[in-house]
Amino acid sequence: MLTSLVPRPFTGSLAARERAELASLALSLGAPAPTMCAGWTVKDLVIHLLVRERRLVAKDRATAELASRDLASLVAQLRAVPLLLSVVDPVLNGMEMFVHHEDVRRAQPSWTIRPLSSRDERELWLSASLVGRIQGRRVDVPLVIASGTRRTVLRSGPSPVVVSGPVSEVLLFLSGRVSVASVAFDGPVDAIEKVKAASLSL
Fold this sequence. Notes:
Blueprint: H1 14-29, H2 42-54, H3 59-67, H4 71-79, H5 83-92, H6 94-105, H7 118-135, E1 143-147, E2 150-155, E3 161-164, H8 167-174, E4 184-186, H9 189-197
Parallel strand pairs: 1-3
Antiparallel strand pairs: 1-2, 3-4
Helix pairs in contact: 1-4, 1-6, 2-3, 2-4, 7-8
């Protein structure tokens, strides 16, 4: 099993905890381990995160340079958040680190859905609502997301498709991880098929 079934206590930002857990998991699995990102290994995903955070220009060259290094040094760099980024990391990277952590976890045979603290659920639901409003433009049907008592209209209209499930699963669905997101659909059958077929990858 890749994680405990007990919600983690709050010890720092979601972004920091997901970053640390992703780094540890990457090292334990090794560079060639698969991920849910098509064609990417664990090493490829770590390189993507480093380039995203540290290289705003010449990304292809930066990717090639990082690819020549071993996984341990790449993970060490991923753990060391740059000073300027550390100020905004908790705000910007919670969803990013969570989704990519799940990209690694769910490509392994022993994954389970992780229980989340109420604080983490609130943060990820806000992310799902914001991302969902963007993704909703790609779906030509009324669309609502729901989790427990939470409910957000992504695209208004009559007879909406309601996508429901744990917060983590709704977010992963909206992030394009359709094959591993445990969500339920309610609404007109033809509209549900349109939602399932939509290109939602971020």
